Amino acid sequence: MKRRLNLLLIIPFGVMAVYIIYSVLKVSVLEGGYWKALANSQQLQSTVVSASRGTIYDATGSVLAQSATVYNVYCDPVMLKEHMDKKDKNRAELEELLKTEKNESKLNEYRAKLEKNQPGSKILDELVTFLSQKLATDTAQVRSALTDEKSRYKIIKRNVDKSVADAVEKKLTELSVDGVRCEPTTNRVYPQNSLAANVIGHTSFEGDGIYGIESYYNEYLSGVDGRIVTAKDGDGNEIPYRYKQEYSAQNGYSINLNIDSNIQYILEKALKDGVAQHKPKYRATGIIMDPKTAKVLAMATEYSYDPNDPGKVTDKASAQKLAGLDENSEEYKKQQLDAWSTQWKNKAVSEIYFPGSVFKTFTGSAALEENAITLEDVFSCNTQIKVADTSFHCWSFVDHGSQNLQKAMINSCNPAFVQIGLTLGAEKFYKYLEAFGFTDLTGIDLPGESMSITIAKDKIGPVELASSSFGQTNKVTAIQMITAFSSVINGGDLLTPQVVNTVTDENGNIVKKNEPVKKRQVISQKTSQEMRNILEKVVTEAKSSNCYIQGYRIGGKSGTSQKIDENAAGNTYVASYCAFAPVDDPQVVVLILVDEPTGDQYYGSQVAAPISVKVMTELLPYMEIFPQYTEEERKTLQVTVPNVQTYKLESAKKTLENLGLKVKVVGSGSSVVKQYPTGAAIDNGGTVVLCTDDTKLEMVTVPSIAGLTRQQAKELLESYGLNLTAQGAGASETGAIARGDQQATAGKSVPVGTAISVTFASSTVSSQ
Prior knowledge:
The protein is of the alpha+beta class. It contains 25 helices and 31 strands.
């Protein structure tokens, strides 16, 4: 009986002991990691220390993007409601005390407290009004956020500066409420606003790069967040310092671009003027590059956007469409996304186009390199050529006759280049299509580079080869075009284009440096030199149709391609121009592309070439490439009138006359008080009017000089006592006429001596 009793006691206790041992083993060993993590989550408090995003600098050290501390104004509607209810409860208690209290002193005390303790509804109204005004936010939107008790965290306004955050905190203290707070965060700031926006890109609300350099180099820019881990007591309070462990944040690296803000501004200004004049349907883009290193000095798309406010639709037509739609409709959202996608896209790398006649540069280079043709070989025009069952027409209705490669390039003759392409042959043509990089990505350090669309090697028949030879079959990107063009003029080397120069840490130490990357040599130095000489002749033989600037040796080629995949009739065009300088030692190459210009002008020589002239006119002196004039150029050279105001009269006269200018003096003083003109470039022999006292100057009415040649315009203006400032590539070309863009409009009254600026262009189109 005793043994059975002992057995009955031992078995349960044994089972219990085994269970306890198993449970301890399970908790401490098998599930130890889980329970340790759970304990840490209850005993440890972890706070993230955000890393500061790196700065983006241009080539001169100017800041293009940087992070700054800003504040998000947010609310906890539940907490705010609790505070309002507490105030209403206190008011109710005070009101009850006022009903029963007899002591006058106490009554006054309660009345003062009641007056100070406003009803919750009144405080809410005051808070809504204050926040909507201070944060420039819709009143209904603010009230909705403050009263939405389904959420404990509602953002009212993002990225306000410290002064606004301080004002909000002060108001909350004044109202004695809680539930609205300002949390510090970082905001990406772009000091130059829209300058180079499509290259730099922008960041998301979370601070990650989503376009441009911000995206491509996000890993370098973003850094690594730090962390502060502290222990908590049973009440959730932080335990003193010895329990604290800090992991410092590693701030992001800085990016130093090859892009120069000054060059970028020159490009963007010229593009903006060109777009305003020709109103292209699908924007315009331009690239400026060092052909020897493939460093991108500037890259722009017009129109663009401001990365400080990327959500603002900048295209007027798109904004107008959106204004007429319901913001909550699916159509509105679709239109808005389309508008954003367009304005954020970098056209230079993300869109493809038929290159047109600029491509003749590569056909000619390949044919020379392969000895398929010589510089002396001649090719006919006849305004058209038939290949198999397809006829290809020249852009000109006038037969160019027999012409060698140089003359064919000057004339941009399609039939001639069809013959050159057919002579080269399909196999060798495709060899150079690949060699010049048209079948691959360039590898530029920007996101979103599009792949070209080129005809397959086994699909190139005579007709396809013919159309490819003058740039009407394969579609390429602008960055592919300028990179390949650079290899034609730099001695034959195909390089990888690069936007970023170096990546540096907080102390300025170089973490990464982009050295020039040579992919291969496509053509020989000899062929490259021959092509440079030919492209210079293109500019000098037809000045007004190209990028001619007095005193500079510039080479270039225009292009006018038909968008035959979109319009079979060929009535839509892409106008482009590629120019480089100096011819003997190329230091800069510029590509301008205007996608579907509207209006009467659509040739590259009419639309893109003038933009190139504007760019080169400012760019070359900035790069310290100065003009060297030929004797022929000196005959039409203009003189920039110096400012001689405050000079003694005799000294002023001597200064101007030594420059070949005539002087007319008005007044009887001994020093110059005013002069007309000043700073303007006028023809040698022009007259400068010097005023020596307050004698009223003669006013003259400006005549119209539109349609006149330069000589005619000069003579007419001189008869009125005015000077001529001749602009444009056609200013030094015989037969060029003044456009109707004179700075001082006809009929305007101006002081005698004033310089009238006007652009001259050829009355006939001599090139595409």
